[in-house]
Backbone:
């Protein structure tokens, strides 16, 4: 290995200065493990893990059963964008409700991370996500404005069809730890970029028997029928079209500028 | 002392108060016994310096138990092949002349020039550009002049460049080496085999060297300016690239594209007019890259963040050079193009595209302003 790498560096011939430089390179290559270790650490920095999530609320008007202070039944939640189980990453979600609620700080310790309540008012809910120890020691805050009443005020409220407001976002971990990577490398809730060449992850920890645990994914959630679908395809198309337009405008401008100069 | 007399400088007043102290000072002042004043002046003179020579050494006589004579004797030089006898003075100690070879014979080194037989020539060394006679001549000259190719080139009967001669010599030596080796691996470590002589590279190198040496001062200054500019640009590019390579390859590419376009414009433009056009666009693009780089770096410092937050930061960084009105116009343009001001599905790809679009619109608006 030493020979090949040092001769690679010498490829285009330099016969005059062979002796001393050869020796120098041989000495440099004598500790490959250290260099590899450094490489490994360096490459970890270029790998980021992103978790696509959707958070929002679903609110049903209680219709006949509605009282003045309890007109709607709503559920605020954080779910995986494709309804996968977020418990692999999130340890606990804390929903901070309006102070008029009893115990406004509601902690949810296991997935699905949701909270149901009944009330009449719209307010901002602060959702704090706490991650597992090997994921991140800092919590992340999301803010969602609870929506109970439909957009168009004239529209009649129905008990069957809820008001749904969801927001798509992605949680990004720019420098994940080895153990985190190993744990989630094949989990459907997690998006890993293409790993750099030569970068090998430690073998994945075997996933525990899912039947023993309560299901954390929201695929068969009772409210699943109301969940919105977020597809990046449309947005990408839109953006591509816009960029093309801008590009051609730019080209036109440059042509004009060049012609003026001539 | 007489030098000072000649110059008319007054003699230095030396303190002669203390005897002990003045003793070492006085000694150089007084010329030492035993040798004449002029001789001592050669060694450092009577100036008030610490003597660099031990004075007592100057008058040392050779050890008197040995009898030294000098004799005019013949000698031979082992470096010569013709047994020429020359004569020289030899220091004879007690009647015994010195033994050993002529002391300069060991410096007669020569290079081992490869010698090939005719069969070897036929088998390995034929070359369309070289006849056997020429090759033989070359090798003879190499042997004679110890591979001093400049001299060899000068003496060579037909006109060949130094590089051609070197090429032929090294090529032949290499071929012979490989042919004579019992197995290829034995010689693979030999420098001739590993790094063969590269004619074109040598020619190019010498040409470049002569160009550099013959540059005028004016050219030198211009070159230095261009290099400094290039370094500045590559440094700012490296900063953005090093910060987050997967995240923003498009950013630096577009940034460099607009910088390149602007530079191209600058080249076609006459220096007097319209120099604001390229410079104005170059400056924002390089500063945009710098801002993005620092934003990326600060994002990396957070251990976790939301994609929308990251996009906001990057948009802010990109628009940092623009005023509020420009930002509003960018947003207006986005709306006209039917793009959401904040992407509804902020995936990595979408955010990157969105950012790029904003930057392009910004560039367009800046250009339109001119």
Residues:
């Amino acid at each position: 290995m030493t020979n090949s790498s040092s001769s690679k560096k010498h490829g285009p011939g330099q016969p005059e200065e062979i002796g001393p430089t050869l020796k120098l390179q041989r000495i440099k290559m004598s500790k490959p493990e250290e260099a590899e270790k450094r490489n490994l650490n360096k490459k970890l920095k270029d790998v980021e893990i992103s978790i696509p999530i959707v958070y929002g609320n679903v609110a049903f008007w209680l219709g006949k059963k509605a009282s003045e202070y309890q007109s709607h039944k709503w559920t605020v939640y954080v779910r995986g964008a494709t309804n996968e189980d977020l418990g692999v990453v999130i340890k606990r979600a804390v929903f901070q409700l309006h102070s008029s609620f009893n115990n406004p700080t509601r902690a949810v310790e296991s997935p699905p991370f949701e909270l149901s309540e009944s009330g009449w008012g719209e307010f901002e809910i602060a959702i704090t996500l706490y991650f597992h120890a090997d994921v991140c020691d800092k919590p992340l805050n999301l803010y969602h404005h609870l929506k109970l009443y439909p957009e168009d005020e004239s529209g009649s409220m129905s008990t069957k069809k809820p008001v749904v407001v969801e927001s798509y976002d992605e949680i990004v971990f720019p420098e994940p730890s080895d153990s985190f990577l190993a744990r989630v490398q094949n989990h459907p809730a997690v998006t890993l970029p293409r790993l750099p060449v030569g970068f090998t992850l430690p073998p994945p920890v075997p996933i525990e028997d899912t039947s023993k645990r309560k299901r954390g994914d929201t695929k068969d959630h009772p409210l699943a029928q109301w969940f919105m679908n977020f597809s990046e395809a449309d947005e990408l198309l839109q953006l591509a079209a816009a960029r093309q337009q801008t590009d051609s405008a730019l080209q036109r401008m440059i042509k004009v500028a060049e012609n003026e100069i001539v | 002392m007489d030098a000072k007399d000649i110059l008319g400088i007054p003699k230095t007043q030396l303190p002669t108060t203390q005897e002990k102290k003045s003793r070492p000072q006085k000694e150089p002042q007084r010329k030492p016994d035993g040798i004449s004043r002029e001789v001592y002046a050669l060694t450092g003179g009577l100036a008030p310096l610490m003597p660099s020579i031990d004075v007592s050494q100057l008058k040392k006589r050779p050890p008197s138990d040995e009898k030294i004579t000098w004799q005019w004797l013949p000698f031979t030089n082992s470096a010569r092949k013709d047994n020429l006898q020359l004569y020289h003075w030899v220091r004879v100690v007690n009647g015994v002349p010195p033994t050993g070879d002529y002391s300069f014979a060991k410096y007669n080194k020569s290079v081992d020039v490869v010698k090939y037989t005719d069969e070897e020539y036929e088998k390995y060394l034929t070359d369309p550009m070289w006849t056997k006679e020429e090759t033989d001549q070359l090798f003879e000259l190499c042997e004679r002049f110890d591979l001093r190719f400049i001299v060899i080139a000068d003496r060579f009967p037909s006109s060949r460049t130094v590089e051609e001669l070197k090429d032929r010599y090294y090529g032949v030596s290499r071929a012979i080496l490989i042919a004579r080796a019992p197995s290829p691996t034995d010689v693979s470590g030999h420098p001739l085999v590993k790094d063969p002589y590269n004619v074109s590279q040598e020619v190019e190198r010498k040409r470049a060297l002569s160009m550099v040496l013959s540059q005028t001062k004016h050219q030198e200054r211009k070159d230095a300016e261009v290099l400094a500019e290039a370094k500045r640009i590559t440094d700012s590019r490296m900063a953005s690239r090093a910060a987050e390579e997967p995240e923003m390859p498009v950013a630096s590419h577009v940034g460099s594209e607009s910088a390149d376009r602007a530079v191209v414009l600058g080249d076609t433009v006459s220096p007097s007019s319209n120099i604001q056009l390229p410079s104005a666009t170059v400056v924002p693009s390089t500063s945009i890259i710098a801002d993005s780089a620092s934003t990326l770096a600060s994002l990396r410092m957070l251990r976790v963040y939301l994609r929308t937050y990251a996009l906001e930061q990057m948009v802010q960084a990109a628009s940092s050079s623009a005023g509020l009105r420009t930002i509003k116009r960018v947003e207006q343009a986005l709306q006209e193009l039917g793009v959401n001001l904040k992407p509804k599905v902020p995936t990595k790809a979408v955010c990157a595209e969105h950012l790029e679009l904003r930057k392009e619109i910004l560039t367009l608006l800046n250009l339109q302003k001119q």
Observations:
- The mean pLDDT of chain A is 77.
